[in-house]
Amino acid sequence: MTAPGGSDGPSIGAGVLPEAPTTSPAPPAAPAATGGTNPVRSIVVPGLLTVLFLALAVFCGRRGIVTDTWPAFLPGADSTAITRYVGPWLTAAALALLGAGLSVLALIRGLRARGSRA
């Protein structure tokens, strides 16, 4: 029996690793300057999306709450109103509100970026 690293065969890892490069890799490129961004893309588009999402939320919310009128259940009443909540429409309204909120955040970010350049 020989000691580890003896002469009874190749040792594990010997000569397997490649040589280290002699030149250092190029540094990462600097990000592009934000001074030339288009104000339409950073302010107008999020503003329009906010209005669109809010209108969609109102539309879906009105479809999600339905009031049905039935014949009177109690004596002396003309009719009975029953309110139903339609889950898919209310879920769509909630998602539209989420989209509006995210659009508002994008709008605020665009306004702050524009204000910091001035």
Question: Can you offer a commentary on this structure?
Answer:
This protein has helices at 39-64, 87-117; strands at residues 65-71, 79-85. With 118 residues, the chain is mainly alpha-helical. The chain has a domain at 40-70 and 80-116. A hairpin with a 7-residue loop joins β1 (65-71) and β2. α1 (39-64) packs antiparallel against α2 (87-117). The termini are far apart. The mean pLDDT is 82.
Short summary:
Keywords: Cell projection, Cilium, Flagellum, Membrane, Transmembrane, Transmembrane helix. It comes from Nakamurella multipartita (strain ATCC 700099 / DSM 44233 / CIP 104796 / JCM 9543 / NBRC 105858 / Y-104) (Microsphaera multipartita). The protein is mainly alpha-helical.
Strand content: 5-15%
Largest sheet: 2 strands, antiparallel
- Radius of gyration of CA atoms, rounded to a whole number: 33 Å
Structural class: mainly alpha
**Helix content class:** 40-55%
Shape: elongated
Count of DSSP H/I helices:
2
Low-confidence stretches: none
Question: How far apart are the first and last residues' alpha carbons, in Å?
Answer: 79 Å
SSE pattern: HEEH
Average pLDDT metric: 82
Q: Give the strand order of the largest sheet, numbering strands 1, 2, ... along the chain.
A: 1-2
Give a count of the beta strands, DSSP E runs of length 2 or more. 2
Transmembrane segments: 43-65, 85-108
Keywords: Cell projection, Cilium, Flagellum, Membrane, Transmembrane, Transmembrane helix
Protein name: Flagellar biosynthesis protein FliO
Region (Disordered): 1-36
